[in-house]
Amino acid sequence: MSKRINHTPIQWKPLFISLFIPLAVGGLSAWLTHDAMDAYKNLRQPPLAPPGWVFPAVWSVLYALMGIAAYLVWVRDSTGRTGALFWYGLQLACNFLWTLIFFNMGQYALAFFWLLGLWILIFITTVRFFRETSAAGWLLLPYLLWTAFAAYLNLGVWFLGLA
User: Fold this and answer.
1) Are the CB atoms for 33 and 56 separated by under 8 Å?
2) How confident is the model at residue 62 (pLDDT cuts 50, 70, 90)?
3) Do 98 and 106 contact (CB within 8 A), yes or no?
4) Under 8 Å CB-to-CB from 47, ≥6 apart: which residues?
5) For the residues 53-59, what does the mean pLDDT come to?
6) DSSP labels, 124-136
């Protein structure tokens, strides 16, 4: 018994735009915090803190996954698409601001609470994306998990900086 699979052709322009937006946000964030990895090396870090080179690699993959997920939602013809993409845009903006709060301002406590709010926004976005297409929801799960790990790192930097 074979299962019929519906293959929708790739819409290249929406895919390019969907990939470009999060990668551009990440690129702008990296540019604005270009000395971040030097500053990160000098911080007291909690156990399990990865070396600085891991962050750009992981974030590049996560931004690409976000872009593909957004594309999958964008090309759907559904009533929930606009709401899902609203939450996506909101969490992406908050993601961008966290980097500035943590690295440029050095406000580790504020950054931690901002990150908790970001995690909630990512969770809402993930749920909304799952409602549109399960593939889009699954693509956001690594981002949700990495952000939880980032919250642990942020909390550790904050508390170790107090000691």
Assistant:
1) no
2) very high
3) no
4) 156
5) 93
6) HHHHHHHHH-HHH
- In one-letter notation, the amino acid at residue 83 is G
How far is Cα 132 from Cα 101, in angstroms, rounded to an integer? Answer: 32
- Report the chain's C-alpha Rg in angstroms: 17
Closest CA to 113 of 163, 143, 151: 151
Cα atoms in the Cβ-side hemisphere of radius 13 Å centred on 53: 0
Residues 6+ apart with CB under 8 A from 104: 32, 33
Please state the domain extents for the chain.
61-163
- Which of the four pLDDT bands, split at 50, 70 and 90, describes residue 38? confident
Enumerate residues 6+ apart whose C-beta is below 8 A from 86: none
The Cα 116–Cα 158 span in angstroms is 14
